[in-house]
Write the structure tokens for this entry.
Amino acid sequence: MSFETLPASPSQLARYPVEARDAYERFRTTGDAEALRIVVLAAVRDFMPKRNLGATNIEIKDEMKLMEDLGYDSLAVAETVFFFEDLFKVRIENTELMSVRTIGELRSFVSRKLTENKPSA
Amino acid sequence: MSSIPGGRRVLITGLGFITPIGNDRATVSAHLRGGKHGLAPVEFLGNPLIPVKVAGTVKDFSVDSANCRDWTWPARYDLPRETLRGMAPHGVYAFCALSQALEDAGLKPQDIANDDQTGLFCASAGSAMLMYHNLALMHSVKGERGNPMGVVASIAGTLNFNLAAHFHITGAVCGFVSACASASHAIGYASDEIRLGRLKRVVVVGAEELNAETLLPFAAMRALSPQSDPVKASRPFDAGRDGFVGAGGSVVMILEEASLAASRGAPVYAEVAGWGQAADGHSVAMSHPAGAGLQRAMNRALADAGVQPKDIDYVNAHGTSTPVGDRAETIALKSLFNAVGARPAISSTKGLTGHPLSLAGAMEAAFCALAMKEGFTPGNPHLVTPDEACAELLLPRETLPTGPATVLNNSSGFGGSNVCHVLKTVG
């Protein structure tokens, strides 16, 4: 799957902030990496367990660890992964998942995933 | 007195209601006293041809979407996303009813958290709606991906999984699946755990969702009333009854051992004085024609509670408004009471609520407890022409202005499962 074949206005983003929905549209039409970053961060914020942290408006930085810094548990990680699988129509293996610990690693992983199967045409 | 050694008594100390007739105790009480039903027009799958026109709907919630992020519930309930993610629609009802019951019992969530003496017994059939959506996705992507919360949100057990985790229940947790007797089983076994000294407190939860996936399969069995007038649709024991009306919601009861309740000055609704169960051994779906299993279950409940038929002031009947089920219960009631000249008031509150399946036993036990505490006896406001088989039964139409002291609450489920409780006022 590559960005060119992604559908417009996916239902998964229907409740997301307008910035995230706009960024998705920009990404699927231009492949803009910065736009993808905005979508990934919006999802990370959306799936972040609120109870563990209390604050929901903290700034999310690339070096932050999902579990240690953002209070993710393994179910929240699995949920986030499924969200990306479902949104971008990709399949993410458990072994790939194990390598993602920080926000930066998650971003580059999603980006790589969306370009690795790009048609050679 | 209970035949269980040790003399431990089980008291109902808190109730929480998310029901077709109200989402708080005061509203539920007003509906029961006033004989006001909670049925509303429904249309499933956008198809007006389906002969299911009314149901016992749950108000102030929106849980129709297959995505839990779309759901809404009354703002006063603090349901965090990390709990919501594993829940079914009826889990949201249950969470709210449980929060309400704790408050009603004078307990805080931290009072039951990590307390080895507090258990959680739940009754639910799972979520057919979420199961359908999760499996449809599985088929559409040929098994390549799926919602990681799909299992815990949809299978029978979803209530116990989610509520035990959220409320940090460490005493015991389990679920009951006996169709329309499920919540009554949960109350019965919860009482036994307390009477046997294994637990001091059990939170009993019943919940059911109301949607096409849960209800329409009963239309396929020809078990639902096709009426569009709510008053005619659910009319237990009436000669013109023609099927049950579906309903959703959740009710939670806090059961506590008497000495624990006394030590913390807990409010008390009633005592669960005993219970009994028996099976029909007859049909997968229909009652035994003479209510044989129900008769045995009632007798066992009375014996367990140490009361005679003449001691019963009120029976909250299972009475779902189906021709076959109500007739079987009528015969069973007559055999128990008329033979000894007893004539308790009998009503089925399903006339007002519809039939919430797995939830029924807990909802109706809670209605009984409320009526006992507040001093009224629910009537049969939709009863116009009693079935002639009911001629010898006392089926008051109007609410009676006095509360019963000793109550029998009946439930029956598929496969001939019959469960009855005896509740007594605590002086």
Notes: Chain A is about 55% helix and 0% strand. The two ends of chain A are 13 Å apart (CA to CA).
